[in-house]
Design goal:
By secondary structure, this protein is α+β, with helices and mostly antiparallel strands. Helix content is 49%, strand content 18%.
């Protein structure tokens, strides 16, 4: 099979197939994360990024190449989560800058688009590191350029590009020692390869379900009303597979279908020599199962209460309507003059949220290590803060890129991202804010002060590994510092104290302990008393952080 050009319709299918393939592999990609903390999120972040774009693509009806390019670029840009998601969105953005100019694309245009994708992504990263998704993308682009003069067949071209991308991916452990130590390839690079493989499947005609959950259809969505519940004649959607004792004869198949029709509707029966796939809406799933058992054993039984699902839809619809009415009421209020300064902070845990609110934060974005907010989340927060200058505190190194990406999309406000990598850095930045100073002066002051904060976080390992010269077993406690793992052990208190010892130096003055949802104040006080006894000149304070994942978040200043 030879293909020499791709139109917008085929490219849309290829993009959706790539998105679906990545989404189906996200948990596997999460497990490739090197750090053994319970946050494996590369696959999730990349999947949520591309699925945001996929929803926009699915809502297009017979798109032009320009419209398709805009949907992919805008959707991924706004949905970008985490470093891996932001880089993926930049790859799409660069790719789309080229393809939007054409009605059909060939090998030459594809090669040019690959080059632009890599150029755009590298520019977006302040300090590009080889052995990552960037390296895999560059390897694919280099191969594309090499092949562009050798063949006009896109199938051959794409196959070779993907093979080379996989080769480069396999080399990533040689470029990053931390990958080699953990015995894995780069997770972001693997995610990109899965997108390419999914797209290739669509290119070569493999049968794929292109349905994207949550996509807007071209027509107006049907309104859900309470009356429609009465129209649900048969309440249980029932599905199962019969593993036949003996092949079902044509006569038996007709009789089986007739029985199902007597107890329900929406009947689908697909039979072969070994199994029978059955789908029926009925008020008595037991009758369908009993009848099926006369032919063999059952597997993959799934029964859903459709009336219950309908009630859930009604509740969601009413909540959405209430929110819409609230927003309309807010919009109708006279606009208040914008204040000079505003603050947005990423935080998770009731205690941490209260700390930030008490320090003057206008808008809290729920998120952190286990759920990186998207660029769209940042933009929504910016819309809610009525200020000329808005400071954003990401409080996590994997959220900074999404925050910076939001800056480029806002024109009517001055957005300043303070690159806080931890919650304590965010708190320190706010404490050092001086209302009488200008936005630029405050930025300089905050940037200087966050460098003086050391942060340690105590969690548990989700798998065995070796990193930073430490052998770590699953369920071990780990004390993670700003740049490395400081302590590993079987005892939570001992591991925490070992981590604190590694953080304290002669310039230290204050130790702040934030205990999480899996810890308590009494345990935090025990740790504080040991620190006070060992370091009598230090001031130790305890706060209820309420954060998940981390038993303690501790700062030393």
């Amino acid at each position: 099979m030879e293909i020499t050009s791709i139109n917008s319709k085929l490219l849309a299918r290829m993009f959706l197939a790539g998105a679906k393939n990545l989404d189906s592999k996200k948990e596997w990609i999460n497990e490739l994360n090197v750090f053994p903390v319970p946050d494996g999120d590369t696959g999730t972040n990349m999947s949520m990024t591309i699925m945001s774009a996929a929803k926009e693509v699915s809502s297009l009806e017979d798109p032009t190449m320009a419209a398709l390019a805009k949907a992919i670029s805008s959707g991924s840009l706004r949905g970008a989560r985490g470093n891996s998601g932001v880089i993926l969105s930049q790859l799409f953005r660069g790719f789309c800058k080229v393809i939007k100019e054409y009605d059909e694309i060939d090998v030459t245009i594809l090669s040019e688009a690959f080059q632009k994708a890599v150029e755009t992504a590298y520019k977006a990263v302040m300090k590009p590191k080889e052995g990552t998704i960037l390296t895999v993308a560059k390897g694919a682009a280099d191969k594309a350029l090499e092949l562009s003069d050798d063949t006009e067949d896109i199938v051959t071209f794409a196959d070779e590009v993907i093979k080379h991308a996989e080769y480069v991916l396999d080399q990533t452990p040689e470029m990053l020692p931390v990958l080699k130590q953990a015995g894995v390839v780069d997770s972001g690079g693997q995610g990109l390869v899965q997108v390419l493989k999914g797209a290739f499947d669509a290119l070569t005609g493999k049968e794929i379900d292109y349905t994207i959950d949550g996509a807007q259809s071209g027509s107006t969505p049907a309104k859900i009303s309470a009356e429609t519940e009465a129209e649900i004649k048969f309440g249980y959607c029932t599905e199962f597979i019969i593993v036949l004792n003996a092949p079902m004869s044509e006569k038996e198949e007709h009789a089986y279908k007739a029985f199902l029709e007597s107890i329900g509707d929406s009947i689908v029966v697909v039979a072969d020599d070994e199994i029978v796939k059955t789908h029926v809406h009925t008020n008595d799933p037991g009758l369908a199962l009993q009848k099926a058992l006369t032919f063999g054993s059952l597997s993959k039984i799934k029964i859903d209460n459709m009336r219950e699902e309908h009630q859930e839809k009604l509740i969601k619809e009413s909540e959405k309507l209430a929110q819409q009415q609230k927003e309309e009421e807010e919009a109708a209020k006279p606009a208040e003059p914008a204040k000079e300064m505003g603050f947005i902070s990423v935080s998770i845990g009731a205690g941490m949220n209260e700390v930030f609110k008490g320090l003057g934060v206008d808008y809290i974005i729920e998120g952190g290590q286990t759920m990186n907010p998207s660029t769209e989340d940042m933009l929504n927060a910016i819309d809610h803060v009525n200020a000329k200058n808005i400071f954003i505190l990401p409080n996590n190194k994997n959220i900074i890129m999404a925050a910076n990406q939001a800056v480029s999309l806002v024109e009517d406000k001055n957005i300043i991202v303070i690159p806080t990598k931890t919650i304590p850095q965010g708190i320190t930045a706010l404490v050092n804010y001086i209302p009488d100073h200008s936005a630029e002066e405050n930025k300089d002051q905050m940037m200087a002060e966050i460098e003086n904060v050391k942060t340690g976080q105590v969690t548990y390992a989700v798998r065995d590994t070796e990193i930073d010269g430490k052998t770590i077993k699953q369920d071990d406690f780990m004390g993670i510092g700003d740049k490395s793992i400081l302590a590993v052990g079987k005892d939570l208190k001992e591991t925490t104290l070992e981590m604190v010892d590694a953080m304290i130096d002669e310039d230290s003055a204050i130790v702040s302990i934030y205990f999480g949802s899996d810890s308590d104040e009494a345990s935090a006080e025990e740790i504080a008393s040991v620190i006070e006894e060992k370091y009598p000149d230090l001031e130790v304070e305890i706060n209820d952080g309420g954060q998940p994942i981390y038993y303690y978040v501790i700062s030393v200043e």
